């Protein structure tokens, strides 16, 4: 059974499973005709990592992850990188973490400053904060969070979606329990 792990190097913090660690030949033993392998982080090569407990799965976490999945399937496919989709998870202390799809690092969402290893901009960061608040406090999101329109709606959305893609992602998101019902898509 694979164990979830996180690289202990602060600048990396790659998150994955121990089966994903890279297997490298240890050079100090190669001259002695012994074959000894070290397992290292596939991103930075660090040999140090620690085990992560399984995240707590709640209904609200599932709703937030469903919204991320909808966003990753439309328009510019935010939260999707080569088939890897970002996810939110809740730890035993009630803190919400985002597993970034590009860096594969756990991003602490409770922090008010700049998030390390989060590669999206401020609009999506604010959306993640709204999803965090839904998970921790039950505060539903307005449909206006999804592909927000510009001052001139003819120009599409702030996310860079054309009108059709923005309407499609809003329509799909409006069906989810995380979105306030009764609002127009």
* Distance between the ends: 43 Å
Tally of separate domains: 2
| Strand line-up across the major sheet | 2-1-5
Label the overall shape: globular
Q: Regions with pLDDT < 50 over 5+ consecutive residues?
A: none
State the helical fraction: 10-25%
Indicate the mean pLDDT. 80
Structural class: alpha+beta
Taken in chain order, the helices and strands follow as EEEHEEHEEEEEHH
Question: How does the major sheet shape up?
Answer: 3 strands, antiparallel
Q: Beta-strand percentage? A: 15-25%
Q: How many H/I helices? A: 4
Number of strands: 10
C-alpha-based Rg, rounded: 20 Å
Task: Please tag this protein with its features.
single chain; 185 residues; alpha+beta; 2 domains; three-stranded antiparallel sheet; 4 helices; 18% strand
Structure, briefly:
With 185 residues, the chain is of the alpha+beta class. The chain has helices at 27-30, 59-72, 122-137, 163-174, and strands spanning 4-7, 15-17, 22-25, 37-40, 49-51, 80-81, 84-85, 87-90, 96-99, 106-108.
Describe this structure in words.
The mean pLDDT is about 80. The longest helix has 16 residues, at about 120-135. A three-stranded antiparallel beta sheet has the order 2-1-5, with no helix packed on it. It has a three-stranded antiparallel beta sheet with strand order 8-9-10. It is α+β, with helices and mostly antiparallel strands. The chain has helices spanning about 25-30, 60-70, 120-135, 165-175; strands at about 5, 15, 20-25, 35-40, 50, 80, 85, 85-90, 95-100, 105-110. The protein has two domains: about 5-50, no CATH class; about 60-175, no CATH class. The chain is globular. It is about 25% helix and about 20% strand.
């Amino acid at each position: 059974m694979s164990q979830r792990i996180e690289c202990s190097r602060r600048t990396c913090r790659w998150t994955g499973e121990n089966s994903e660690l890279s297997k490298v030949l240890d050079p100090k033993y190669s001259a002695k005709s012994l074959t000894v392998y070290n397992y290292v982080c596939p991103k930075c090569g660090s040999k140090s990592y620690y085990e992560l407990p399984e995240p707590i799965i709640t209904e609200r976490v599932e709703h937030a992850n469903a919204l991320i999945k909808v966003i990753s399937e439309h328009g510019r496919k935010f939260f999707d990188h080569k088939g890897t989709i970002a996810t939110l998870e809740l730890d035993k202390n009630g803190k919400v973490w985002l597993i970034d799809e590009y860096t594969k690092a756990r991003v602490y969402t409770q922090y008010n400053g700049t998030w390390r290893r989060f590669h999206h901009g401020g609009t999506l960061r604010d959306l993640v904060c709204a999803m965090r608040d839904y998970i921790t406090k039950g505060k539903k999101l307005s449909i206006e969070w999804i592909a927000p329109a510009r001052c001139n709606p003819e120009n599409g959305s702030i996310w860079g979606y054309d009108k059709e893609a923005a309407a499609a992602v809003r329509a799909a998101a409006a069906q989810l329990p995380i979105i306030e019902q009764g609002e127009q898509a």
